[in-house]
Amino acid sequence: MFWPMFAVAAGFLGLAVLGVLAVRVFVEAQRLGRQVAESGRRISRAAEDLERASASTARAARSL
């Protein structure tokens, strides 16, 4: 009777460990998603700044 109960307990413990790891993976995936979104916003902002700078440089070059 000991071994079947031990197997059930070990199975439950294994599922609990997998559940904890799944929650950790989910949290880290959400954090990565937020970082990717923030990086996308920063890249977009930098592209807009570059576009404005190139436009003003082109105007300055034409005036020469």
Short description:
The protein is mainly α. The protein has one helix spanning 2-63.
Number of helices: 1
The low-pLDDT segments are none
How is the main sheet built? none
Q: Distance N terminus to C terminus?
A: 94 Å
Can you put this structure into words, describing what you see?
- By secondary structure, the chain is an all-alpha fold.
- It contains one helix and no strands.
- The chain has one helix at 2-63.
- The radius of gyration is 28 Å and the shape is rod-shaped.
Offer a few descriptive terms:
64 residues; mainly alpha
Topology:
Blueprint: H1 2-63
